[in-house]
Amino acid sequence: MTQSSTEPLTEFKKITVVGTGYVGLVTGTCLADVGHTVTCIDIDEDKIERLKKGIIPIYEPGLEQLVKHNYQAGRLIFSTKLVDSLPEAEAVVIAVGTPSADDGRADLKYVYAVAEEIGKGLDHYAVVITKSTVPVGTGEEVEKHIKKHYSGEFDYASCPEFLREGSAVDDFYAPDRIVIGVRNDRASDVMLDIFKPIKGEKVVTTVESAEMIKYASNAFLATKISFINEIAQICERTGANIDEVSYGIGLDNRIGPKFLKAGIGWGGSCFPKDVKALGQIAGDTGYEFQLLKGVLEVNSNQRVHFIDKVKAHFNTGIKGKTISVLGLAFKNNTDDIRESAAIDIVQQLVEAGATVKVFDYQAADNARNELPEEVIFCEDPYESAKDADVLLVVTEWKEFKELDWTKIKDILKEPVVFDGRNLLKPSKMEELGFTYSSIGR
Ligand code: UDX
Predict the structure, then answer these.
(1) Of 26, 97, 165, 238, most Cβ neighbours within 10 A?
(2) Residue whose CA lies nearest to ligand 1 atom number 5
(3) Which atom of ligand 1 is nearest to the CA of 259?
């Protein structure tokens, strides 16, 4: 998949990637796949042992095969000892987590701890690259942390990550752009070498601009979805159809067709965290980012509106009703439930006294730890639908479209479907005899 689409490299690099979370593991594995020798570091010994056996901690299409292949080829090494890998490293990538602190700020303690360790272990020129999403100005702080322990030569680069879960491997090989934030040509030469095998425009900027590009991209995409969700609300009240409206506005080149799918809103590990963090970054400079407040509010309201519709369906209240919920992941093709609208909705239904029967293709194991004990986990969508008073579609798994909806109609107690992802065709559902409701149409 990779080598045929790449140009030959003049020189492969020795790269250390710190953090085998989502970003670190995908980046490290794919960099090894194009020919670099990559050591992936994590403090979690169990995780490293499992990775050596080809057991990967997340569900991500294509990743497991790449991990196994490159590990066997000797280009991908897993270790818990950052210090051992540093003497050889020409580049060190920081890809550790930046969780939200209570006030919405990105918590940078892991990033700085790694920077200190790099400072202690480095003894030659290398480029230290941050892939974690970090506020503008973090680059300078990382440099300071390294310099506390190391007075030799090194350069810093910011290289934000734009991979989407569920299509991360494909996104790595066909990015819209690679953003490289540097302070000098020496660093950009190393970075351009590292990413030479990957097609796509390389945008070389200052470190600060690169940091801002990441936040602004995620905030803009989240804004686009919240915008279309508000339009969907008005569509419902005026009789317009959001599918037609999204298509119609998306044909305008200046708007574009993507991220205009109305639904119960965005979740995941990035949008919620980064939108809040950008609001904080703005606030810290004395500027109030007004638009983002609305973007967040619209997003949480979408879930509320959806549950209100379900509640309104039952004149006698939701208590004691059985509700089938299809989907738990924050979107399709992932097992990730972080900030998932689906999880939030299930929790609210249980609180309201409903019996909830859930199904997801990948996210059930993760969801078990989050959801109340009384939630019933089902082996397939039909088991979830059986004898339920209503069925909700809350994650956009394409597979839900292909279900035998005639069978589902027969096994549901009442043929009622609320589609929070506009996945199914209203005309087809009505033809089949469902009472069908979706978002903005
Ligand atoms: C996002 C960015 O797209 C990626 O560039 C960045 O690196 C990480 O954050 P990801 O979190 O994997 O990627 O998910 P994405 O595909 O962007 O979807 C985010 C959320 O928006 C999901 O909950 C999805 O269901 C929702 N969404 C997406 C919509 O509701 N409507 C849309 O039109 C698109």
Answers:
(1) 26
(2) 162
(3) 33
The model's pTM:
0.94
Query: Does residue 235 carry a catalytic annotation?
Result: no
| Nearest-atom index, ligand 1, CA of 421 | 30
Find the domain containing 151 and state its range: 2-205
From 332, 335, 310, 341, select the one nearest 229 (Cα to Cα): 341
Residue closest by Cα to atom 10 of ligand 1: 164
pLDDT in tens, 379-408: 999 999 999 999 999 999 999 999 999 999
- CATH number assigned to the domain comprising residue 342: 3.40.50.720
Please choose from 225, 243, 275, 278 the residue to mutate so as to test ligand 1's pocket, defined by most ligand atoms within 8 A of CB: 225
pLDDT, tens digit (0-9, with 9 covering 90-100), for 278-328: 999 999 999 999 999 999 999 999 999 999 999 999 988 899 999 999 999
Atom 25 in ligand 1: residue holding the nearest Cα: 331
Neighbours of 220 (CB within 10 A): 11
Residue 145 in tokens: 């942390």
**Residues 220 and 156 placed together within one structural domain of the fold:** no
CA of 111 to the centre of ligand 1 (A): 24
Using the predicted structure, report yes or no on whether residue 5 has a pLDDT greater than 50: no
Mean pLDDT for the chain overall: 95
The pLDDT tens digits for 128-181 are: 999 998 999 999 999 999 999 999 999 999 999 999 999 999 999 999 999 999
Q: At 423, phi and psi to the nearest 5? A: -85, -30
How are strands ordered across the β-sheet holding 14-18? 76-79, 37-41, 14-18, 91-94, 127-130, 155-158, 177-182, 201-205
Please give the distance, rounded to the nearest whole angstrom, from the Cα atom of residue 266 to the centre of ligand 1: 7
Distance, C-alpha 65 to centroid of its chain: 21
Is there a single domain that holds both residue 166 and residue 267?
A: no
Q: Looking at ligand 1, which residue's alpha carbon is closest to its atom 6? A: 162
Helices (H) and strands (E) in the chain, counts: 17, 14
